[in-house]
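[step 3/7] inverse_fold.run input=structure_tokens len=420
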């Protein structure tokens, strides 16, 4: 429903300017926004479940994962934190876009009165949205402490458990081979406040978490063995009891299938190797997070400066206008960085703790996969070109394209004040 709501009304929003009343066009715009938010909600509920699979259990009778509580799936804390964080990032992206387009109009001397108003709205809304991204991102960080400890340790390149009060690594050079972070510069207390909401609780590091994973792999082998016995004899009460004791670690036992056909034949060295597979690419995680966070704080600074200049009625200050234009690509870079962080940090899991990624590979042939990839790339690439073309055309036509033209005084170019 959300997809069709969004897809239907976006066409009316783009092409309905002269065909709909002002109230009707405003309604279609709200419907596009509603559809977009509903799409984001359901997509992130699904993704949140893959990150933290609550409300589901492995059914030994049907040999598959099944939902046991839709309410738990819907109110998954990881999904809810991701949703509000992602939507706030979308609001920030829109604000940067409006700020940049308004700045382009002001720099070119076109439609100054409208451009000043839209610049002011974007500055105020963008400042609120960008601050919200930081606050809601902090909530996502707190959710990691309970549900994705390894991801948190990896993005901090934290090899050993950080004692309380845990400090945040502002800069460092992670080395995954030596399990160390060179030239680390830490900010005291910050990680403890983000991850535990306290100053007296430690934050688990990568090496201790690998040791925990090794134990879980060993228990997973027991779960796999019990499951194979249940396949052979579903009425075996001993096998069912053994499976119940270690069912939560079955996914960890399946990590061994990368190295051996039967996890029960794995030796100690193979188990240790599988345990280390639970560590994502630490240097990439470390730098991608800092790129995302750095862009976020830069946007706050730009929005803050723009808001102050709007308040002082100095919107025509040239340096802030050029800065607003220059940062237009940054929200997309930050958003993609966030998705990289979420999905690379989940590895080696397709469903965290349940299904390893390599076991979730498609059963389609290579030819079928390439056909699908090429087809979708061409389709969505064409749609992207059309959409960007429509946006650029709309911007060039300006806010008066479908209304009476302004008088000469209103359309006159403004004089930009030099940077102080």
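[step 3/7] decode complete -> sequence:
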């Amino acid at each position: 429903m959300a997809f069709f709501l969004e897809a239907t009304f976006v066409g009316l929003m783009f092409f309905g300017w002269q065909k709909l009343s002002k109230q009707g066009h405003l309604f279609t715009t709200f419907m596009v926004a509603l559809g977009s938010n509903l799409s984001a909600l359901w997509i992130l509920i699904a993704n949140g479940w893959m990150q933290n699979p609550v409300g589901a259990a492995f059914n030994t009778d049907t040999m598959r994962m099944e939902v046991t509580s839709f309410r738990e799936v819907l109110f998954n804390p990881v999904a809810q934190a991701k949703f509000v964080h992602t939507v706030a990032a979308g609001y920030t992206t829109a604000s940067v876009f409006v700020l940049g387009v308004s700045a382009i109009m002001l720099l070119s001397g076109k439609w100054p009165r409208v451009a000043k108003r839209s610049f002011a709205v974007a500055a105020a809304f963008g400042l609120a949205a960008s601050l919200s991204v930081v606050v809601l991102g902090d909530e996502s960080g707190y959710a990691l402490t309970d549900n994705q400890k390894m991801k948190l340790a990896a993005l901090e390149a934290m090899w050993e458990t950080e004692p309380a009060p845990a400090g945040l690594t502002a800069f460092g050079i992670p080395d995954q081979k030596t399990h160390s972070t060179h030239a680390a510069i830490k900010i005291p207390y910050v990680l403890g406040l983000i991850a535990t909401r306290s100053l007296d609780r430690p934050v688990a590091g990568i090496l201790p978490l690998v040791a925990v994973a090794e134990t879980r792999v060993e228990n997973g082998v027991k779960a796999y063995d019990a499951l194979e016995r249940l396949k052979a004899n579903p009425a075996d009460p001993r096998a069912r009891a053994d499976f119940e004791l270690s069912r939560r670690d079955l996914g960890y036992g399946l990590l061994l299938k990368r190295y051996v056909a039967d996890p029960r034949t794995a030796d100690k060295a193979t188990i240790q190797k599988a345990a280390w597979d639970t560590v994502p690419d630490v240097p990439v995680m470390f730098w991608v997070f800092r790129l995302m966070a750095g862009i976020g704080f830069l946007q706050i600074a730009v929005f803050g400066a723009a808001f102050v200049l709007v308040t002082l009625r100095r919107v025509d200050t040239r340096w802030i206008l050029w800065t607003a234009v220059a940062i237009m690509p940054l929200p997309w870079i930050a958003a993609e960085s966030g998705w990289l962080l979420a999905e690379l940090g989940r590895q080696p899991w397709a469903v965290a703790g349940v299904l390893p990624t390599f076991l979730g590979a498609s059963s389609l042939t290579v030819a079928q996969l390439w056909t699908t990839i090429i087809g979708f790339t061409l389709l969505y690439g064409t749609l992207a070109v059309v959409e960007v073309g429509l946006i650029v055309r709309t911007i060039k036509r300006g806010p008066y394209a479908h209304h009476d033209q302004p008088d000469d005084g209103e359309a006159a170019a403004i004089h930009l004040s030099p940077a102080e």
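[step 4/7] annotate
The chain is about 65% helix and 5% strand.
The beta strands are 56-59, 64-67, 168-175, 180-187, 349-351, 355-356.
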